[in-house]
Amino acid sequence: MGTLQLNSHCGLSSNFSAYLSFKLNTCSKTTFTSKNLSFIKRGKIRAVGTVPDQDQAINTEATQPEEPPSIGFAFVSSVLLPDGTPDVHLRAAPGGQKLRDIMLDNDIELYGPYARPLLNCGGGGTCGTCIVEVVEGKELLSPKTDKEKEHLKKNPKNWRLACQTTVGSADSRGMVVIQQLPEWKAHEWKYEKQVPADESE
Ligand code: FES
């Protein structure tokens, strides 16, 4: 069984609210488990059943400032790593931005063979080369534009043009899972969302 390699150099925020479990059906049957992604699951520590006195509350606020809202992303590459495991890149970014900008700003491959400036329209919505597959988090995304409907009318419904897709707003939190370059991907994988026991009660 292969192992998951997480290329996480982004300083992920601890306010991710999603709890993820990936099952990848690759040639090596790799599984992304909640254990592998346990750092995503770290949430805020809450006191239960007691009310801190005022000094204590002030000290707590002073030492643990509220993190600004952000959205977590898991970008799955279209190709496996040399050892046969999936290549997943975890990032975090404020909402209200185009998915294209988030990907390019975070060194996530978007255009594949169309990366050179003259081979794509640079975000104008006319070339149709910035396609992504939305695996999780479509509720955070803006509705499809007319340009997307035109370019993607023969593609699966969860394909989007990254340059036309706005992710959430400035106060959004959540998780978005994106398959990069879906038209070039070399492996199939299945995504399963896992809700922790304490939230399913
Ligand atoms: S960059 Fe050309 S359609 Fe998105």
From TrEMBL:
GO terms for biological process: P450-containing electron transport chain. It comes from the Eukaryota. Pfam families: Fer2. GO terms for cellular component: chloroplast thylakoid membrane. Gene3D superfamilies: 3.10.20.30. Residues 119-167 form the 2Fe-2S ferredoxin-type domain. Keywords: 2Fe-2S, Iron, Iron-sulfur, Metal-binding. GO terms for molecular function: 2 iron, 2 sulfur cluster binding; electron transfer activity; metal ion binding. PANTHER family: FERREDOXIN/ADRENODOXIN, PHOTOSYNTHETIC NDH SUBUNIT OF SUBCOMPLEX B 3, CHLOROPLASTIC. This is 2Fe-2S ferredoxin-type domain-containing protein. It comes from Opuntia streptacantha.
